[in-house]
Amino acid sequence: MNPFFKIDERIEKAADDALKMCREQFYNIDSITEYNQQKVLSAFIEYGISESHFVGSTGYGYGDRGRETLDKVWARVYGAEDALVRHNFTCGTHTLATALFGVLRPGDKMLCVTGTPYDTIHNVIGIKGEGMGSLKDFGVLYDEVPLKNERLDYEAIESAVDGSVTMVYIQRSRGYELRPSLSVSEIEKVVKISKKKNPDVIIMVDNCYGEFTEKTEPTEVGADLIAGSLIKNAGGGIARTGGYIAGRHDLVEKCAYRLTTPGLGKEVGATIDMNRELYLGLFYAPHTVGEALKSAVFISALFEHFGYSVTPRYNETRHDIVQSLGLENEESLVAFCQGIQKGSPVDSFVLPEPWDMPGYDNKVVMAAGAFTLGSSIELSADAPIRPPYYAWIQGGLNFHSAKLCALLAAQSMEDKGLLK
After folding, report:
1. Residue 294: enclosing H or E segment and its boundaries?
2. Three-state secondary structure readout of 325-348
3. Quick one: the chain helix, strand, coil %, rounded to 5?
4. ∠ CA 122-128-129 to the nearest 5 degrees?
5. Could you give the CA distance from residue 366 to residue 384 in angstroms, rounded to a whole number?
6. 255 pairs with which residues across the strands?
7. Over the stretch 181-216, which tens digit does the pLDDT of each residue have?
8. pTM, full prediction
9. Alpha-carbon distance 181 to 171, whole Å?
10. I need a surface site. Which of 66, 189, 231, 232 has the fewest CB within 10 A?
11. Which contiguous run of DSSP H or E holds residue 141?
């Protein structure tokens, strides 16, 4: 029995069974983690990282060697020509928007080949929010290729990519969808199809939640540009804010001009006291992602054991850290999230309730007791209140605390008579 928390014997027994189910996947995750940790360490050694790189700059930030070298280390890790890693990216959506506005021009066409993208990017593209200064407001055209049976429709992609398409946009993770996340090999296939039809097309990947879940990244298989958040995988639970863009040098430079101003780009930007944690976050990232993957696998096994629909299943290969869990009704969904909150190291006393969250069409219930506000590499669970009442769980700084959170979520449902 747990000496610190009240967990029913039935839930404890289910947890033991789930752990046995997870052994093979845990071994595979450890193999990926070790490879990626070596990749990161070799980049740190190659560029001779020392304490002098951690010193922050002020004012214009001219000659900040820590900032400049971090970009090089990041590019080396991601197999890219260049990178732009900055603490003043406010979130993943801001980072993606900077990349899109940095590269696309009036009259260009953006083609999303993974169906309709994540909710918060809709206003950026102009799918909704007319008059906000979206890409659509600036004359950038948009189209999308729907998924086919929740998978990429390669034939439709090949048909849609022609000389009029400036950018093929790929969302790697599932967002609030039940379709599988994309593997790097699937992204590579899109790259080959698209480049064959239009050699000049730019392939951009929203890499959020996918970093270090495989041994390769999209930029290593031909993607021209990737972007992500530092309070997700890439910051390792250390970075308090920020984002990154990596890829072709000319495209990264354009993104830097958008972030700061044309002509200055990457040459300015004070790092204040942020350099050390951005380096440290990158160093920790492979291990932290490994812990998050183990957490997701365990949650999948545990709730499948109880008879719930899960995607992906515990024994499926994973390409992001997100776990979807079908809880069948609003009451169970809210009870689950409240249980996750009870096991959080921060704000464990808070009771999550559905609310109208900016950028979303439905009310959202969100459990997140994190050291960094909004961090989704720390264990969190959130869900739009709409059928079929799935929760999306991501993160876990360490497996053992995430495991306990999962048990408390099950206990919260059990206490209300909702657990199967």
Report:
1. helix 275-305
2. EECCCHHHHHHHHHHHHHCCCCCC
3. 45, 15, 45
4. 105
5. 9
6. none
7. 999 999 999 999 999 999 999 999 999 999 999 999
8. 0.96
9. 9
10. 189
11. strand 141-144
